[in-house]
Amino acid sequence: MNIINKKSWHIDEKEVTPKEIFEKRRTFLKLGAASLVCSSSIVEALAKEQLPIKTLKYIEDKNPQNLKLNSYEQITSYNNFYEFTTSKEGVKPLAHTLNTNSWDIVIDGLVEKEMILRFDEFIKKVDLEERIYRFRCVEGWSMVVPWIGFKLSDLIKYVKPLSSAKYIYFETLFDDEMFPDQARKYFSAISYPYVEGLRMDEAMNDLTILAVGLYGSSLPKQNGAPLRLIVPWKYGFKSIKSIAKISFVDKEPLNSWQKENPKEYGFYANVNPNVDHPRWSQKKERVLGSFFKQNTLMFNGYEKEVAHLYKDMDLTKYI
Ligand SMILES: Nc1nc2c(c(=O)[nH]1)N[C@H]1C(S)=C(S)[C@@H](COP(=O)(O)O)O[C@H]1N2
Ligand SMILES: [Mo]
Asked: What residues does the Oxidoreductase molybdopterin-binding domain cover (predicted)?
């Protein structure tokens, strides 16, 4: 009889692995790679680095200009997302009520065929790329973010707008069970849904993306999950979060901040150090985490790529 004895050096995995990790490994095998995040050592290491696990596949941005990235912690802890609260530090602890499961995006207006895009399905059809961009809020703070996203022009080509479509219009989800400030009704900070718009040539520009992630991982809720617009040469308020509807229209749409205060905010909102906000200068900005201010750049540093879009326009008038 041939009895296979366990070799003396063979140690059962159970004996060397702390019970907890062993159990988790089993769950991991059942659930797939996503629950790898559970391993406590990985969680600890990531907390120290303050970086998420890279879960997205994308073409890396080589960062030719050597922009200095803000940390994951900075980008995800200081937010403007009025649907939750007007407190920038207050958004992150509240953002868990945003449910991004089975997210739909309504496409309507001047298109060949109106449709509903399932986010989970559509994301498989696009090529993701990293875009390391400066991001400048109209309030005078800024940051550098490694977004992951796809070109808005890819979505536009996919949904086929009619030639009569001159502008694109976006809406953030309206759901007063997910967004506490929407539930305040008459006492809300601003009127909802949050809305934004771009001229079609701005929307088709190569710099304009729909972001679905940052630092290699899907977008945190406080940054506008599951997808938000990024228009890096415009003030941050144009970069509408948690988009649930995209319409193609023939007239310039109103955007939320123009609705709230038309004397102070316009449709274009191009970053421009030479045109001050009625209540403060736009010449300088403070990068999150820095003590000193730095000069704000024309079109936020993207003049070469976008100045031609506005060549015959008086930028002191079209704010
Ligand atoms: N739906 C929605 N989108 C929004 C906002 C908002 O309050 N609600 N704030 C805007 C402003 S003013 C800025 S500066 C950016 C902030 O993005 P961040 O929190 O990812 O830095 O989101 C923009 N998009
Ligand atoms: Mo902003």
From this structure: 98-257
